[in-house]
Amino acid sequence: MSSGMTLFSEMDLSDELGTRQSRISSAVDAIPKEQFLISSDSELIKYIKADLTVDPLVLDEQAATVIETETKVDISGDPNRIFRSFNEGAYYVPGTCIDVDIPFSGEEWIFSCRTNPWFSAYPHGTVSLKSLRVSITLPHDVDRVKFKEDYDREMKLIRRYIANSSTQVSEYNESLPGLIQQAIKSRRERLNKHGNIAALLDIPLATKPGAPSITPIRVEMRRPPTLPVPPKGGVKPEPGISDETFEHILQFIRHQGRTFETTPKTYAKHDEEDLRNIIMAQLNGHFKGDAGAEVFRKQGKTDLRIEAENRAAFVSECKVWTGPASLTGAMDQLLDYLTWRDSKAALVMFNMRNKNLSRIVDSVPNTLMNHTLFVQVIGCDEIGEWRIRMRSREDEGRRVIVHVFVFDLYHDPDT
C-alpha cells in the first residue's frame, strides 16, 4: 500500500490558473508610466509573461533513488488475512517500506490541484525540496513482486494527472500573450486619450500632388524580453515620423537602389555622396515639409535627414562597403541623431568592389548583432535588407529602428 498525502485532490487547477489570469491588468498598470511609454508591446508582454508563466510538472524518473527500511505494518484492514485480536483497532506485523524519491521540475503547488479531467482514484506521495516521494509499505510475508506492482500502479496514476495538468498549463501559458496585449492596448488608449502623445510625436509629411501611391510594406515586429529604462530627460513629446511615412520612405529608397543595381556600370562611377544626392532628390520629389520646402536635407557628406526642434526624426546614412567594419562605423554615426520615441533610420551600403556579394550578405546579420548597442532583430522579408532596434550611446533609454539596405553596384571592368 502507498502512503503520504493525497495528491491532485484539493484546489481546482482551472480556478488557480484563472486567478493568475486576473492579475494581468494590475501587472500592466503597475509598471511606472515613463517606463511603460518607452517600452514596446512585445517588451511588455515578455516582461509580464515571465512573471505569470506557470512551469508544468516534469518528473525525472531516470534520477530516482530508493530507500528501504524496516517498519511495522497495520494489517487490520486486510480482508485476505485471518487473525485473532483481543483488541479492536490496528494490528501490526513486521514489514518493509520502500521510499522512491523522484526529482521534478515545475510548480510544486500543482500536486495539490484537481485536474480537468480528473479520476475517481487519487495517488499518494510526499512533496518537498523539488522531490516527490512515493512510499510503498507491505508486510514481510508478501511477495516482493507486489512492491513493483503497487509502485507501477501508483506511478501510472501520477503520470496521468501530470499529463492532464500539463495540458491545462500549456493552454494557460499560450493564452497569456493575447490577454496581456489587450491589457497593454487598454492602458495605451487611456494614456493617449488623456495625453494625446501619439499625435504630438509625428512630423506631418504630405505627399506631393501627382506622386505615385505606395502600399506600405507589411513588417512583423519582434522585440526584446526586458523593459528599457526611461530616457534621462524623462518621457516627453518629441518629433518623430509615423510608421506609415517610414515605410513610404523605405519603399522609395528600395526602388532607387534597385534602379542602381539594374545599370551598375552607370552608377558605380559615382561616390557615396553622389548616390546619396540622387536618393535625396527622389525623396524630395515625393515629400514636402510644413512650409512646402524640401523636407530631406543633407548634413555631412553621406547622410540625409528630416529635422525638427534641433533633433533629427529620420536619418539615412550612405556608405560604400569596405568590410564589416564599414557597416559598424556607419551604424555608430546614426545612433546619436534621433529622438527617443520610435526613432527611425536607414543605412544604405553600396557594394562596388566585391564580386562575391553573398559573402557580404552572409556577414551583415552577425555584424549588426555584435554591435555593442544592439537590442533586437525585427522581421524583414526583403532580400538584402535587415531591420534592427538599437539603443542610443548617450542615453540607454532611447531606442532607434534602423533599416539596413545592401545594394550591389559591382560590375566587371573588363565587360
Task: Explain what the structure shows.
By secondary structure, the chain is α+β, with helices and mostly antiparallel strands. Helices cover 36% and strands 25% of the residues. Strands 1, 2, 4, 5, 6, 8 and 9 form a 7-stranded antiparallel beta sheet that branches. It has a 7-stranded mixed beta sheet with strand order 12-13-14-15-18-17-16, sandwiched between helices. Strands 3-7 form a two-stranded parallel sheet. A hairpin with a 3-residue loop joins strand 12 and strand 13. Helix 4 (41-52) runs antiparallel to helix 5 (145-195) and helix 7 crosses helix 9 (272-284).
Present the secondary structure layout.
Layout: E1 2-3, E2 5-6, E3 11-12, H1 13-21, H2 24-29, H3 33-38, H4 41-52, E4 58-59, E5 65-74, E6 92-105, E7 113-114, E8 124-128, E9 131-139, H5 145-195, H6 197-201, E10 206-207, H7 243-262, H8 264-267, H9 272-284, E11 287-288, E12 297-299, E13 303-308, E14 311-320, H10 324-334, E15 343-351, H11 357-369, E16 374-378, E17 385-391, E18 399-408
Parallel strand pairs: 3-7, 14-15, 15-18
Antiparallel strand pairs: 1-9, 2-8, 4-6, 5-6, 6-9, 8-9, 10-11, 12-13, 13-14, 16-17, 17-18
Radius of gyration: 33 Å
* SSE order: EEEHHHHEEEEEEHHEHHHEEEEHEHEEE
Largest sheet: 7 strands, antiparallel
| Overall shape | elongated
Flag low-confidence runs: 196-201, 211-225
- What is the terminal separation in angstroms? 89 Å
Average pLDDT, rounded to a whole number, is 80
Question: What's the count of strands?
Answer: 18
Oligomer: single chain
- Give the helix tally: 11
Sheet-strand content, in percent, reads 15-25%
Class from secondary-structure proportions? alpha+beta
| Helix fraction bin | 25-40%
